[in-house]
Amino acid sequence: MIGLAAAFCFGHRPAKAVIDDVQLWFVERRAQRGSGLRFYDPPPFKARYNAFLSGEDAPPAGSIRARGGRVRYALTTATLVLAMAAGGYGYYVLNYIAKHHT
After folding, report:
1. pTM passes above 0.90
2. Which of 41, 50, 69, 83 is the most buried (most CB within 10 A)?
3. Are 40 and 52 in contact (CB under 8 A)?
4. Are residues 48 and 82 in the same domain?
């Protein structure tokens, strides 16, 4: 219960910010490529895309929008590699080490 409450209280707001940033990144990418919307895009994504194209979702004047590029790619790759390594190690421990020590 404590973990669930902590995740909801302390993880909800940062997760919303990350999700918002990721959605905006995909909208910008699709708009730059000019590929348009697809039938399977969810309504919030379509609304964000249309708002971006009309200029309603533009950053405030004088602000600089950060571009991730190589740093974002490196962080994402490192996170995925570490998560896969931890998962693989957990699988190994549960299936080989823990079975032979019981």
Report:
1. no
2. 41
3. no
4. no
Same domain, 58 and 75: no
User: Are 59 and 94 found together in one domain?
Assistant: no
- At residue 4, the 3 state secondary structure works out as helix
* Residue 22: C-alpha distances to residues 7, 45, 64, 84, 90 (Å): 20, 11, 17, 21, 29
Residue 9 and residue 43 in one domain = yes
Summarised one tens digit per residue, pLDDT across range 62-81 is: 444 545 566 677 778 889 99
Q: What is the pLDDT of residues 36-64, one digit of tens each?
A: 898 999 999 999 999 888 887 665 554 44
Q: At what angle do helices 43-54 and 2-33 cross, to 10 degrees?
A: 50
89 pLDDT band, cuts 50/70/90, is very high
E strand or H helix at 46, and its extent?
Answer: helix 43-54
Instruction: Calculate ∠ Cα 16-19-22, nearest 5°.
Output: 150
Range of the domain at 75: 68-102
